[in-house]
Amino acid sequence: xxxxxxxxxxxxxxxxxxxxxxxxxxxxxxxxxxxxxxxxxxxxxxxxxxxxxxxxxxxxxxxxxxxxxxxxxxxxxxxxxxxxxxxxxxxxxxxxxxxxxxxxxxxxxxxxxxxxxxxxxxxxxxxxxxxxxxxxxxxxxxxxxxxxxxxxxxxxxxxxxxxxxxxxxxxxxxxxxxxxxxxxxxxxxxxxxxxxxxxxxxxxxxxxxxxxxxxxxxxxxxxxxxxxxxxxxxxxxxxxxxxxxxxxxxxxxxxxxxxxxxxxxxxxxxxxxxxxxxxxxxxxxxxxxxxxxxxxxxxxxxxxxxxxxxxxxxxxxxxxxxxxxxxxxxxxxxxxxxxxxxxxxxxxxxxxxxxxxxxxxxxxxxxxxxxxxxxxxxxxxxxxxxxxxxxxxxxxxxxxxxxxxxxxxxxxxxxxxxxxxxxxxxxxxxxxxxxxxxxxxxxxxxxxxxxxxxxxxxxxxxxxxxxxxxxxxxxxxxxxxxxxxxxxxxxxxxxxxxxxxxxxxxxxxx
Length: 510
Ligand SMILES: Cc1cc2nc3c(=O)[nH]c(=O)nc-3n(C[C@H](O)[C@H](O)[C@H](O)COP(=O)(O)OP(=O)(O)OC[C@H]3O[C@@H](n4cnc5c(N)ncnc54)[C@H](O)[C@@H]3O)c2cc1C
What we know:
Blueprint: H1 18-27, E1 41-46, H2 50-61, E2 66-70, H3 76-81, H4 83-100, H5 117-132, H6 137-142, E3 146-149, E4 152-156, E5 159-162, E6 165-174, E7 178-180, H7 188-191, E8 208-212, H8 216-228, E9 231-235, H9 247-259, E10 263-265, E11 268-276, E12 279-286, E13 289-295, E14 297-300, E15 304-306, H10 313-316, E16 320-321, E17 325-326, E18 339-341, H11 352-367, E19 381-383, E20 388-393, H12 396-401, E21 406-412, H13 417-422, E22 428-434, E23 440-447, H14 450-463, H15 467-470, H16 482-494, H17 498-508
Parallel strand pairs: 1-2, 1-6, 2-3, 6-18, 8-9, 8-14, 9-10
Antiparallel strand pairs: 4-5, 5-6, 7-15, 11-12, 12-13, 16-17, 19-20, 20-23, 21-22, 22-23
Helix pairs in contact: 1-5, 2-11, 4-5, 4-8
The structure holds flavin-adenine dinucleotide.
Flavin-adenine dinucleotide binds next to helix 2, strand 2, helix 3, helix 4 and helix 11.
């Protein structure tokens, strides 16, 4: 541990398993000794989630004096309560689904399938611990980053306080992320509920679970717990899940959840919760009809709110509001020219990749007179249900709003050789181009591996590669990614004008 000038910080979290103990040593070491602060830092970073880590590491690698402040655990939501734990459990859920489908592949399914929830959770903790090594407190210190554990709050335009320790900066980055939005349902708080901060600490598989909210988090976890064997219900206010996504994509997710046995309540609102006989009774209202359901646990996944509370942003002259978070311009500058923001605390797209990319923009703009714009980024994302739903660029609706004429090329996965061979035929690849050109405007992929597949479209968009050129790229055969190539071929066929066909035929008849 680094040289100490301040008292050791007591840690608050008790490990759940030996692997969890390793994770805590990496992300929140109980005996961490803060370094002797510099008189002023080139960059002071509030929050050590994906955004804060990306900025601190990039700036330190370029020789800047960096202070990084974390009040809880390095890695933020992504490592500790979000992406990594959820994706680890999703993998287990996928295996269980495949085992149930074993006969389809010629394997004899076990007479009785035994699922060990504890073992699945231990695996998840082992994975989280392993990934936590990369961004461990010790590694950050070795990279020259001054790491302070504590809660940061601004005391002026160029100063913060970390639990009584004053620090000064030339530039600062607010990367304090977001927190679960809590639904305003009478009785819910008294009855108790799970969020992403507690659901991964469950020791026993819930007999029944109601998920409130059908966004990415709600859909992913509802499917996982249904596959684990919990009686799972999902209640969503709107007529379809995943409100951002195209309707056919959202419908496929709805169908997939239903196939996994999730009880689906769309256009549905939880209006009241109370306890009865040790169970939570929830009143759900759907189109004026009221019904009640009894569950052991309720998981809220209705959205995220930016973590701006307690930062004393007024003292720093940083404009913000509770819903949108810190106000930034396209260069990620706040209303205080010394202070920038990145990640969930200020962005509409709350993902790990956007958090890290926005943080790297801040390093260039804040420390090196860069003029990089957030709007120049091409942001792909994925909801890791089975099938996955991935998207990049514009939706048709957005293109229409911007009066951009669009042509769409769609390849159903049941027309893709590898998807047929894999028995993974649900879904489609849909690529939107600017009408009359091959310029890719956006794409939606629904497929078992859509998250992997979207990256090649993202690459094409960033490199300015159109569908015509994509059709010339040879791919290994057979792959599910061939669907993209098939869409490019479909585009090429539209370029075959009657005149070109006539010329070709004449040539062949010479
Ligand atoms: C269940 C779940 C699954 C997800 N899955 C995915 C996925 O598959 N892919 C994806 O791209 N994204 C996913 N996300 C979203 C992703 O986790 C976030 O977008 C990402 O973590 C945001 O990074 P961030 O650095 O902006 O904020 P955070 O990760 O929230 O980190 C902010 C950090 O700041 C610290 N902090 C806050 N206030 C202070 C303060 N005053 N002083 C000091 N420190 C402070 C916090 O303790 C925290 O460590 C998921 C989220 C959840 C909840």
